[in-house]
Amino acid sequence: MEFTLSVSAADLLLMLPEFLLTGLACLVLVLDFSFPKISKATLAWITAAGLSGILVSLVWMFASGLQGALFKGMFVLDAFAVFFKIIVVFSTLIVLLASLDYIKRIYLFRGEYYVMIMLAALGMLFMASANDLLSMFITIEFSTFGFYVLVAYLREDDLRSSEAGLKFFVLSVFTAAIMVFGISLIYGETGTIIFPELAASHPVLTGGLVIGFLCVLVGLGFKIGAVPFHNWIPDIYQGAPTPITAYLSIAPKAAAIAIVLRIFFSTFAEFKPEWVWLLIGMAALSMTYGNIVAIAQKDIKRLLAYSGIAQMGNLLIGLAAGTKMGGDSVLFYLVTYLVANLGAFAVVIIFSNLTGSDQIDDYSGLSRRSPLLAAAMMVFLLSLAGVPPLAGFIGKIYVFTAAMHEGLIALVIIGLINIVISMYYYLVVVKKMYIGQPTDHRPIPLSVPMKAVVYATVIGTVALGVYPKPFIEWAVASTSLFSHLIGP
Amino acid sequence: MTLDQHLLSIILFAPFAGAIILIFVSGERLTLVRTIAAVSSFISFAASVYLLYAFDYGRGGFQFLEQYEWSKDLGISFFLGVDGVSVPLVLASSLLLFAGIFVSWHIEDRAREFYIFLLILASATIGVYVSLDLFFLYFFYEMSVLPMYPLLGVWGSHTKGYLEMKDTAKRDSLAFIFNFASNSKEYAAMKLTLFLSAGAVVALLGILLTYVGTGLHTFNLIELQGHEQQFTPFLRSAIWLLLFFGFASIAPLWPMHSWSPVGHAAAPAAVSMLHAGVLMKLGHFSIIRVGYWLFPQTTKEWAGLIAILCVFSIIYGGLVAFFQRDTKYVIGYSSSSHMGYIFLGMAALNMISMTGAVLYMFAHALATGMLFAMAGFVYDQTHTRDIPSLGGLGRKMPFIMGAFVIGLMASVGLPGTVNFIGELMVLAGSWEPYPVQTVIAVVGIAITLAYLMRMFMGLFLGEMDPKWAHVHDASPIIDRLPLLIMIFGSLYFGLFPTQFIHVISSGVQPILEQIHSAGAVAAARGGG
């Protein structure tokens, strides 16, 4: 069979953000090599400006309702993909700004740091558009390559960073192998790898297909860090440079959720009675395990790592609902998690820039040293706990309502119990910041970009809680591809 | 007219606006911080006094409606409105907030943050009382719980037993936190927050089941009303019980009360006032607003349960209060005992007792507010709440002693105070359905008198320890103003309760009509 690609210029418009990002990454790389005297901060600002431009192009794509498929349906652009691309680019931008001060700790390859971030982002942009099993695999691996390097970026100063990099690499490759095996099984059973064709072929649920599906789920579960595929998260979160931890905690998860939604909600939608139990189990285990283990943590990055596992469990409640509303709630939840989690990591970055410590005990008396940071951290943590009037509360209510409509009462009860458990460890941090006495009285300086990040995420967290309407509508509009699903 | 249209928004958002302005004010400028807090709470207070008199009780029903669409996809609208049940509670909240600002005038450590949390706490409480959307009711309910954590943890106080322990390792050990008599404020704050959040999520489950069960895709309380029969008897009982126990944990109904005295004791005076005065009433109010309003027939079936549990509240709280050494524990247990009267009035399901119960909620807010303000004042002066080590303070603080007598009278429910009317109505109304409980409740009044007299004598009479020579009486304006407002409210509405009773009964009547007609319909159905 002759394989031809007939792609017109108009079609390539569908890949505009990817082209722009590739160009930007190359530009920064070339500038860094060609002009050794150029300051790294300048490179960062060029990157930030470029990312803002890409964000604008994405908003334009959403507004214009552009959609289509390329390369025989391997790459698809629809409102759903654009939603996730916006999330990825936005979090990349925030992570970049949050890295500006942090990167001064890194002595080598500062220019490449930005390039690596952009290449990882590029992989994730493709993930959001991946529409068949092969491009899914390739894009996931593409985005992970950037992270292999980024996680180990502190190798000169911190052994844990190298360790994290190695662990991440080994585990990632291991799950990738499992996923590839699963893909081959699915292909063997159905004869196709393109999602819509898979759905249209109405496959019979044979043993091979089940095993293939489960193997793919292993790979995806690993990316979103849900129990029982969560083991890599705490060590790698702790060891990686904190901005990268922040990045890892949101962008790859979001992009993987896009693929998970496409697979569960479109490709294998007809097997909902079978897969719903998998999701219920993963959701319940992730929430309970993440929250209970988080209680014992002494390191704020590990605490946020376990909290992230629990948050993914919450998100899976919406997935388990398996309806259009469930999809909406997942998308909305992701936005609420994004702002609060990035904000919390921003505070951790600022704090460790001054003190070099991530111990929760060292946060004692933060409210006296920096009222702004303490208040902001409290807002983020309480939002993650799901307290009104903050973003997380609306997100939680949304997924619970979606699950309730499908009669998943037991899962909602587990979720509700977990809210109370999680409140404990988030409040312990609040307690340290507000009630504890500082051992070190130095005020904490805030640079302009960090201030911008903190303000933006605080405002986002509160705004999403007080007036979520535009975001809910955005989520609802983005999931129109799931309107075939029965349910409210 | 425009003012009337936005009256509830003003009451609700004035303290919020104050809190937001405070974020941008320097914490160093204490006077400015206090003034902003006082002004914003005064706007809310003045508007709710106006609300009481502008409320048209002849018309009844929900008034001063404001509705804005919030999320169509979830069926949520920002829907405000008050009926006769919520008007007195709105007034009590804003009054106690205004008084509380002055009670906490002397706080200097991070005063700005203190006032921000206090304003959020009070306006979230008001938000529950004025919400006609189930989602927002819960939204504000949960929102009012969280500020308690920093308020107790940062500005609260340890109990004496805790401070006396020298072995700090033992003091902070896990086993120690179960030692009820000697708690740290951190423990109290955490216990309170987790307990109330747990109660809240139980209620939330009930709310979500209601929302999904009706299939109306709306949280609007008025539209949800009248769909009780869509639920199976098992499901509606389950929902009712979830709502009841969820909300009753904040009330606090025995046996879910244990967070409350601990929390009262640890809290700074103004927070204790708001906590006992209006936060605990969120429980009764939400049960009436959600449980009674949406599930009238189920309410009738389960009212007996309330009548049983309330007796334990009254007697247990009263007896434990009698044996406390700590002033705030006395008032804390007294509050949880008095909450039993409100439950008794709610259980009786007739006009007199329900009206009395709502009136008593208002009355208790003022009475307990006074007592907590004074206990706080004495603590500020002496740094102890231990009754046996105090005494003879009457000579040093005659004004406080006088005010305490009035607070005591109000708490016991002597004629002339609004508590008297509320208590009398509750007892008169519940005599017929629950004679045993009513007799026990009367005994409870005697117990109240006993422990408050004991506390009064312990604080103000007898020999004064020379080490209290430095204490002084309430300063002319800042310290006396809040007490005078509460005393005035208690006496004024005790002598002229007509407006109040009209307003409250206009709100209670439709709820009771629902309950009794629903029962009749069901009985007719069963008979046919």
Q: Separation of termini of chain A?
A: 45 Å
Helix count, DSSP H or I runs of 4 or more residues of chain B: 23
Overall mean pLDDT score of chain A? 89
Report the major sheet of chain A: 2 strands, antiparallel
Strand line-up across the major sheet of chain B: 1-2
N-to-C series of helices and strands of chain A:
HHHEEHHHHHHHHHHHHHHHHH
Describe the protein's architecture and organization.
The complex is a heterodimer of chains A (488) and B (528). Chain A has 488 residues and is mainly α. Chain A is 75% helix and 1% strand. Chain A is built from 20 helices and 2 strands. Chain A is globular, with a radius of gyration of 21 Å. By secondary structure, chain B is mainly α. Chain B has one domain. Chain B is 72% helix and 3% strand. Chain B has helices at residues 2-5, 7-23, 30-54, 86-103, 111-130, 134-145, 148-155, 160-164, 168-171, 185-214, 221-224, 233-248, 259-266, 269-279, 281-294, 296-322, 327-348, 351-382, 398-412, 418-431, 435-460, 480-495, 498-527; strands spanning 63-71, 76-82. In chain B, strands 1-2 form a two-stranded antiparallel ribbon. Chain B starts with a helix and ends with a helix. The relative contact order of chain B is 0.11. The mean pLDDT of chain B is 87. Classes of the chains: A mainly alpha (488), B mainly alpha (528).
Summary of the model, kept short:
Chain A is an all-alpha fold and 488 residues long. Chain A has helices spanning 9-12, 16-34, 40-64, 79-102, 110-129, 133-151, 159-190, 195-200, 207-224, 233-239, 242-267, 272-295, 300-321, 324-355, 366-369, 371-385, 391-405, 409-434, 448-466, 469-478; strands at 68-70, 75-77.
